[in-house]
Amino acid sequence: MMKWAVVLCAVLALSECTYRVSLIKGKSARDDLEEKGQWDEYRLKYPFNPMGRFTQTYAVGYESMTNDADLSYYGVISIGTPPQSFQVIFDTGSSNLWVPSVYCSSAACSNHDRFNPQKSSTFQATNQPLSIQYGTGSMTGFLGYDTVKVGGLQVPHQVFGLSQTEAPFMAHMRADGILGLAYPRLAASNAQPVFDNMVQQGLVQDFFSVYLSGNSQTGSEVIFGGYNPNHYTGSLVWVPLSSETYWQITVDSVTINGQVVACSGGCQAIVDTGTSLITGSNNDIANINRWVGATVTNGDAVVNCNSIASMPAVTFNIHGYSFTLPASAYVRQSAYYGCRTGFANGGSSLWILGDVFIRQYYTIFNRRTNSVGLAKAV
């Protein structure tokens, strides 16, 4: 184990990894791989774990995600013994794990995979009810414990929700359930989130990273206890959290062509993989859509598809840095509905920087420093 960990650190000797082992003489593993033309293959295969040089007890959990038309991202986990598989949305805007159960008769359960506790030898029931309200509906059910496998990591005694009712909109979800990655204080029924359980059991270091592909392409991923430098360029900007419930930060302003068009004087925003759009207060969003030339019809900000190339970029100024979205990033083109912006009314002063933003900026969610790291995604 020690030998492999040392070699792995040498293989991943990027700029962040300066660890040197006196037992390795002569040419480094990276030098050897580069000479053989295999370096790029290895650095893509093994996500970077910056703590690997200090300990051999931590793993890296790699979870690939499916991009569903740039509207949601989900991956496959398993629950129980033997394992029962489910597709779940990895959601940094909530904290509970739940999946449909055989006790659910809602339409949303009938067209999704359902967990059967009687088929798992490691399931432990509770009498504790669960109710979660999302922006477009709710689910109710009860809590249980079982072994959860995610990203190649086995997490024993993980609490999760078994749904008994689900909102109608969930019948249209590709995913079966949701795996929340926000802070424990946001969890319904005080259920311990999966990531917290991973860290508490010493499986991974206390940070994870997210890359979201665009244009329905493959390659989206969440990495527990590691991150992938191949998915971003330039330096990471570390933004401290303003609240440790959601992954909440302070946005200084939103500008177009140097003019403040929203969030004047600063506003609060959450970085949320579970929301497809960028939302904010109604007045601010309306002003942004006016500036980019959108016409709001039935709540949708419609633009001419032929005008995308000439539309202005929208810049979010955060922690003294500028994070810019070109029109090609914030306009979604649909064969059925034409072109619409990704700016939507949130009905709240709390902004949501959803997938429209995260697709452009690789994000590391750091629980040790209570911060998010942002860098231009590639």
What does this structure look like?
This protein has helices at 2-11, 29-35, 39-45, 107-110, 194-200, 282-291, 327-330, 355-358; strands at 61-64, 66-68, 72-79, 84-91, 97-100, 124-134, 137-150, 153-166, 177-180, 207-211, 221-224, 232-240, 243-244, 247-251, 253-256, 259-262, 267-271, 278-280, 295-297, 300-303, 314-318, 321-325, 331-334, 338-341, 343-345, 351-353, 361-366, 371-377. The model is unreliable at 1-28, 39-46 and 51-56 (pLDDT under 50). It contains eight helices and 28 strands. A hairpin with a 2-residue loop joins β21 (314-318) and β22 (321-325). It has 378 residues and is mainly beta. The chain folds into three domains: 2-46, no CATH class; 62-223, Beta Barrel (Cathepsin D, subunit A, domain 1), CATH 2.40.70.10; 232-377, Acid Proteases (Cathepsin D, subunit A, domain 1). A six-stranded antiparallel sheet has the order 1-11-10-27-28-12, with no helix packed on it. The chain has a six-stranded mixed β-barrel with strand order 3-4-9-5-8-7. Helices cover 14% and strands 41% of the residues. It is globular, with a radius of gyration of 22 Å.
